[in-house]
Amino acid sequence: MEPEMLPKDKAEDKFGEAEPDQGIGQIDHVKHYGNRSVTFFGSLATAASLAELVSMFPTAGGQYHFISKMAPLRIGKGLSWAVGWITTFGWIAVAASAPFLSGTMIQGLLVLNYDDYVFQRWHGTLIFWVILVISAIVNIQGSRVLPLVENLSLGFHVVAFIIVLVVICVVSPTKHVPEFVFVDTINNSGWGSNSIAWCVGMLSSCYVVVGYDGAIHLCEEMKSPRTDIPIAMIGTILINGTMGLGFLVAILFCMGDLNSALNTTTGFPIIGIFYNITRNSRSATALCSTVVIMAGLASIPLLTSASRMVWVLARDKAFPASSWLSRIDESRQVPTIAVTFTSFLLGLLGLINIGSTSAFNAIVSLAVFGLEISYLIPICLLLYQRVMSPESISPGPWSMGRYGIGVNVLSIGFLVFTCIFLLFPPYQPVTAANMNYASLVFGAVCIFSGVYWLCKGRWVYEGPVLPQFED
């Protein structure tokens, strides 16, 4: 029996030229392990630094609350305001990325399975909105089941990883040689320099581990945040970093023809890779469905963390309509208005997909850049205090002790390096369709925040509302 027609062949009459890649894995333009290793150790150092801060100051505001405790008085209020806005919109972008991935991958699977389906980018936006609505309903109506959803997500994540890893290793008809996996360099980005393309490819490596501060923004709802949150943050990097490296090695050995995967008209090379491995559209769909389900489940807790940032920023009077957004639904003990408003903002981000073929890249860039900037500033202040006035630091139960300076320096170096390249366009030559619009959105947020600060914020914002810390 002959294998099914390749995805590209099935759809080329409907598409003309293939849509530029949208998925996580294809943001990498140079196939190299270096950026994975750099990301793993840099993120581990950053998580350890933030874990030390939250062990000292367990507050839902996280980064901008840390700044209010450590920054000099003359700049503390304005700096915490700026970082609060950056953190909030970084989290909004992170919360948009998961349903966007799930929704657009569903669209890619429609291309793979139905010959008569005509691809339109607005279809992906509609699916994205549906997932957002479901996530908002669960956050508002089913807040008591959120721990169950998170445990289910973790269990499915681990089980699906094992199943997919075993399947691709067993059924793959061909295996690449070790030189292809560990030595060869492939640059399909259009950047003339492999070094620049390697740096731009750091985005996907950073994205899959960023967001480890999510537990911080729920710490006021936890019993032992000073010890539990550091364990959760470090554990996240160790587990996901190890699993991600194993999955990457397996994919590279088993992926089959690289060009057919990159040229797939589904928009997701990972779909083409799974098809190369299984030679069957239904089997490839089953493997891809694990990614769709994981991203869909992740959309719920990501919306939780993002809405808590909006709520706490409003509680501190650093957001427009603060008295309205900071309300708590007494019957459910949930900031219902903040959840609804955050979902609305996420929906607006989905409109980028209609006009840009690199919309997912823009959202991911905005998410990673915003969060990394919010990590960088408080860690710089922590290092400054460590060097200039170590007696002013009162460590919590989780402390790095004498290793703190080295870990902070490693974290700062990593964050500065990656932030430089996160806003670069993913492809050359740059066009209006494939431009990285993250810089435009980030700049607009900063301008709005600055104008609001000058017009009203500096008069009403007194700094974060901090709980009374125990000695």
Automatic annotation (TrEMBL):
Entry's Gene Ontology molecular function annotations: transmembrane transporter activity
Bias-annotated ranges (Basic and acidic residues): 1-17
One GO CC annotation: membrane
Subcellular compartments: Membrane
Domain of life: Eukaryota
Membrane spanning residue stretches: 38-57, 78-102, 122-140, 152-175, 195-219, 231-253, 284-313, 334-354, 360-384, 405-424, 436-455
Key words, A-Z: Membrane, Transmembrane, Transmembrane helix, Transport
Positions of region (Disordered): 1-22
Membrane topology, as annotated: Multi-pass membrane protein
Name this protein carries in UniProt: Amino acid/polyamine transporter I
Species whose genome carries this gene: Aspergillus caelatus
